[in-house]
Specification:
Chain lengths: 145, 107
């Protein structure tokens, strides 16, 4: 259970690609290239831009991810919100891409975490934010087995 | 994502509900009155939050006299962790595809 709980804190996937950061940046930010490995999209690398990723609908998901560009810092950092199930579902995440030049290529780190700070509500502000909850969740799950 | 997992996420998307659920995992059983004092919102609001938490079985209740006691059911979080694992698989698959795209791209 501890491994699963660890991944629940924030989902992180990392890999070193044998290509320069500028090339990774293009694959992450040019709509046509992005569509080849992510999903059909109307992404543009402009902060504040609202866009969608679209995949084949599934019985439990309409295939739409509603996003808004949060950070564009070429060729280092790219971030967008990641909303599934429409505004009423509250399933809102933040995806952060970090590119770092590494030996023989680029270290790519994708982190999917949290809810946007403006959705944490009035109740004691960030004190009961998602991160804190997930940290507590890990403790709870640790005691399950 | 299953309907059940959806309910778990929706129940916990609200910060007040997360706080109530956390309090129950910390303190064990609590009455609606105690939870109302803790959350600092009205009792009807707390009752409504508890109803939402009950749906995916995140909390369980029992009545004793005029009081209703609530208890957390952390096992209900299992599907949520499973869902996060599947999201991990989603991203790893995307990374594989990205690798293919990079190979085909002009340098």
């Amino acid at each position: 259970m501890s491994i699963a709980a660890e991944s629940a804190r924030a989902l992180v996937v990392e890999r070193v690609f044998p290509h320069p950061p500028e090339k990774l940046w293009r694959a992450l930010t040019e709509g046509a290239l992005l569509a080849e490995w992510m999903m059909t999209n109307d992404f543009e690398p402009v902060v504040g831009r609202k866009f969608q990723f679209r995949a084949e609908p599934k019985p439990t998901w309409n295939g739409v991810v509603d996003c808004e560009v949060l950070i564009v810092d070429p060729p280092r950092r790219l971030s967008y919100s990641w909303g599934v199930g429409g505004a009423e579902s509250g399933l809102q995440w933040v995806v952060l891409w970090t590119l770092t030049a590494a030996e023989g290529g680029t270290h790519v780190r994708m982190e999917q975490s949290g809810f946007r700070s403006d959705q944490q509500g009035a109740y004691q502000g960030a004190k009961y934010g998602w991160q804190k909850f997930i940290a507590g969740l890990e403790r709870v799950l640790g005691g399950l087995d | 994502m299953t309907i059940h997992t959806n309910h778990v996420f929706r129940a916990l998307a609200d910060p007040t509900r997360r706080a109530i659920f956390e309090e129950l995992t910390r303190q064990g059983e609590r009455t609606v009155h105690a939870l109302t004092r803790y959350a600092g919102v009205s009792q009807p609001a707390v009752s409504k939050h508890l109803t939402v938490l009950k749906r995916p079985k995140l909390v369980r209740h029992r009545r004793e006299g005029r009081e209703t006691h609530y208890r957390a059911q952390p096992d209900a979080l299992g599907p949520m962790v499973g869902w996060l694992d599947r999201y991990g698989a989603f991203w790893r698959e995307r990374f594989d595809r990205l690798e293919g795209v990079l190979e085909r791209m002009e340098p």
